Structures are given as structure tokens and as C-alpha cells.
Amino acid sequence: MAGEVEVRGFALMLAVKVLYAMYLGWLIVPERLLHRIGITYYPSKYWALAGSAWLTLAVVWGFWLYEGLNMATIPQISHRRQLEDDKCKSPESVGVQGFSHSTAKSVPPLCHIPASHVTQTLFGHHPCDDE
Fold first, then answer.
1. Sign of the alpha-carbon torsion through 62, 64, 67, 68
2. Fewest CB within 10 angstroms: 44, 51, 65, 81, which?
């Protein structure tokens, strides 16, 4: 037997399809034919295009607002929080002796790798050697 979620999802899908068909009917059918059928109370056809345009603009503005708020809440690139956070584990706390030696386990435990070690591994020198 279908669960409650499936039934509600199916009903919502049907409702959306019916509303979309009504929207297209209101948009495409000429006004005199709507009057002949007996439908006389409906919004202006202007809103068929304007409503869609406003909805599209609202979605785009929403994406920009979301991205702007995310950009405003992140720390600057030079901030220490960009490298490690409160949940960061040091290698010593999880039992990693060093990063150069292989471990007996196939996958070492998850821990923070210092930026100086990453730079030394990738570029072959310590970042302070340039000074």
C-alpha cells in the first residue's frame, strides 16, 4: 500500500499539472471564447508575461542574495580560519607520527595537515625559505 508521502506527492503533482493547464488555457484561449464559455472573471493577460518575468527575476535575485550573504560571512583569505577550524584534529591527537612514513593501516585517520607541510610537499621548499 502506498505511503502517505507518496499519496501527497502524487496529489501535488496532479494539482501542479492542472494549474499549469489552466494557466496555459488562460494564456492561449482568446477572451471572447472565454466569455462564451462563461468565464468572465480572470486576471489581465498582461500578468501572463509579467508574472513569469517577476518570478524569474525573483529567483535570480534570490541566487544573488544567497551568494552575497555567503560571501559576506566567510573570513578573509588571510584569516587563520581559512586553514583550520574548531573541529580540526592535530596529527598527534589521532596518533599520526608523521606524514612522510607509511602507516600499518591502509588509510590513516583523518587529521589536519599543516599548510607548511603541504607547500613543502607540493613545491619542494618551505614557504619561509623565500625570505
1. negative
2. 44
